[in-house]
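The passage that follows is intended for readers who have already worked through the single-chain material. We present the inputs for a multi-component assembly, then the predicted structure in tokenized form, and finally a short commentary. You are encouraged to pause after the input and sketch how you expect the pieces to fit together before reading on.
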Amino acid sequence: MGLSDLVDHMMRRPIRATGQVSEQTEKKEEKEVQVKEGAAFYFDYMRKDKGALGSMVVIVAFLAFGLVEGILQYAGSLFKDTALGWAILPSDPLSSTATTFKSSLQPPSLVNFPANVLGTNFQGQSILSRLMYATPHDAAASLVVVGSAILVGMFLGTASGYFGGWVDEVMMRLTDAFLALPGLVLAITVAVLIGGGFTALLYALTLIWWPTYARFFRAQALTLRNKGYVEAAKLNGTSSLKILVKHIIPNSVDPVIAYATLDMGTVILTIAALAFLGIGVSSGYPEWGAESSAGLQFFPQQWWYAIMPGLLIGIIVVSFTLVGDRLQDLIGGRITY
Amino acid sequence: MSSSDTGNIISVENLAVTYRTVYGTLKALDGIDLSVARGESVSIVGESGCGKSTLGLATVRLLPQNARYAAGRLMLDGNDVAMMSDREVLAMRGTTAFMIFQDPLNTLNPVKRIDVQMLEAIRSRCKHERTAFSETDALKEAVDKLGDIRMPDPDSIIRRYPHQLSGGQIQRIVIAMGLLMRPKLMIADEPTSALDVTVQAQVLKLMRELQREYNMSIIFITHDINVAYGICDRMVVMYAGQVVEEGTSDVVTRKALHPYSQALIQSVPKATKEEGRLTAIAGAPPNMLNPPKGCRFHPRCPYVMEVCRERAPPEVEKDGDAARCFLYGGTAS
Amino acid sequence: MVSNFGFFIARRAINAVVTVVLLLGLVFGLLHILVPTPEAMARIISGNPRANGGVIAATIKANGLDDPIWVQFFNYVVNVFHGNFGMDTFKHVPELQELELYLPITLELVVTGQIIGVVIGLYTGAIAAANRNRAPDYGMKAIYLTTWSAPTFLVGFIFQLVIAYWLGLLPATGVVDPTLPVPHVFTGAPVIDGLLSADWSYCWSAVQHLVLPALTIAVTGFGLVTRLGRATMIDALDRDYVKLAYMKGLSKRTVVWGTAFRNALIPIITLIALLFGFSVAGAVIVEDVFGYYGMGAFSVNAIFNFDYTAILAFTLVTGLAVIGANFVADILYAAADPRVRLT
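Having made your guess, compare it with the prediction:
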């Protein structure tokens, strides 16, 4: 198996199949392939693909839990009752009073389930609880960043592609310059310059992410503006704005959704990498990347402290990537089912 | 459709080729009988999806990975193609049979110059014939061959890249490449369909002349019955993976037996505008996963009878023309 | 034809320069949007957020911070082209000096990592294409989706933990064994310097320290290449010119590697520039994990110390490097595909 098989692409083993062939054809005759439309199409496919199904479950769990936990934490700060923040968590992730050194830096174990499943940190706090506590941070940030990037990119990119001319030239050069810098590097610069808090992080990341979507929408606008129905609308005297909103944008959205799902994963990776470097988090907040960085001190003896947050990130991002990848395949027509 | 293989370059007996797809097994060819004598030119006519390309590819073992030679025999120059070993296939290709394809834009390697690609062909031939390969001789031979195919200024053309040449030029170069290999059979799969009409005429004329010059057999696959008539002695009409009619070009075009062939001929637009509406063939091409029972053309046939829906018609001969149709008998058995 | 190619290179070079200027404009613009007043800028340059009025005024005067924006930008561009990236706020040495020290180390890491990544990507892409829609194809996809999604620091940690700490096969941190004397500095990159000085033990140590960081970068990035490589290979194998090559009686090997692969490689060249940017970003993290003191570690320290000049210099240099990689990719692409360089 390997490279020689590449070559077998063109050679085939002569197989003498006798009566079996006709039987198979007859059996398949009865099974008509039903193709559904719209959202049902996607969900139907997901049902059949176990990997994608599992990933959807993870994503929904991630976002839902982030939402719930985020509300709890917000409510907790509103009502000055911080205990709300960890009400649904296995243990208190933040307090350093209820700890003893006996429970410090424990390896993952089934003792005290489920708190110690991922081990404990130096202050004896459950790593699992800490990671769960930080879920809203990543969930919210990724949604906000991707959403804002899509919005900004949608307006700028579609307009640029549709109207063309010098506006388009400027936009192309601008996005070129933005895309010349690796996302992480630019994020570091911007975030540090404007202060390094959570909001700064969001601004910085949106600033970095919009050019890709602008390019996307621009490409779609370029293709779509020559379509028959757009010409017809123009002849009818429809205003450009209406054309953009009614015709061009709705037809650009499909591939963007697939890419955006993929992108959520990339954004989460970038947030984690930035947190690893100490950007975008307030100290003490157990954001996943920051936790991993904190674990660096105790590496390699208490290796779980550094590795577990990374694993969690990996699982979530893989789920986004897998679903995004499948969506791209579906939309690109590369697979049918 | 005789199946004697003496003197025939190709002899196909009851060939079936299937493709395995996600939807099931697709029978692309079902019971094909065909033979081509040396020096003869035969055209295979049919609409898209009837299996004519598959037949061409099957002859040179270029079918995709999911295809199977399901039944019958395909004898090329006396050897069963499906049973050949890999080495035999390599030897067969080029020297026994050569195939040219439809889209000139994609038919030559875009990153290599023409002379390099032609020399590849010569080198391969020398290897199989076990003769010495000399680059200068080979280059001269290539340039000469370009002259044979009436290419002006061959010295400069041969140093260009494919994207710098026109479609017609490319197809002629591919023909030249084929000739360099000295094949006994040339299979042309819609080589002129992507060219405009004047260039098409040039290429066809060239092929006709070369065929006589080299006494090469030609199988010309096309959907255009005009072109088929122009270039070939015999015509084979295919539909839904089966041969429905076969005879000399004259007989088939003037006195076609099978309703499908008749419809094909009638659908050719006439020269004048007064002839009325264009006649199209009613219905749609069949689903090859689940072809119609009985005669496969029966859903679209204007003369359909009860028996056509139930049984596959046998082959009937009449005045040097052979067709599979119940109209001419065979209903009893 | 030669002059044609020459024109092409010249056009691309000009393009690159224009993009560089635009990049500078972007960074400059960003800087001035985020730090709007000359006073704020003076605070940054002097490295002291609580500087008094006198120091601020002096800094403004010294750096021309109250000049019109156009003048400042012009000076900025001129400075950069002369290699003047400003004075480091902490070490009070020209940034260029710092860059000269750390940049080659990172470049060595990034280029090595990228080469390994591309090789792995091409190999896995070929296997996937050969076994389309069968087990190895899905297997490859599963692997690269996972490695692509894993955070760089996780991959680094796992390598470090398993190979360096538990198995003890390779050193865990550092660029080179610190007890070895440094040979003559030719380029600043340890492996190359070791080679050029014929100092084999130094070179070998540098190589050993290079393996894990480079592997980490390669592993997190190769997915891109696999994905595209598989697609282009499948596309190339289906083309008529491949069938024609078979018709010429060429062997499987010649057709697949000489014809199909050669054509399949061309679109992958465009990936190189993208991958380079990705690898540089990865290098920042990798250097932190492995204690590999290149540009990445330099920037991490700068972040920690709020050393703005250093961070800006780092950003600029990274941008320049990516533009440079783009330029190289463009040239390679034209060299490989005659349709691009000839009309």
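Commentary: The CA atoms of residues 32 and 156 of chain B lie 45 Å apart. Confidence is low (pLDDT under 50) at residues 1-5 of chain B. How closely did your sketch match?
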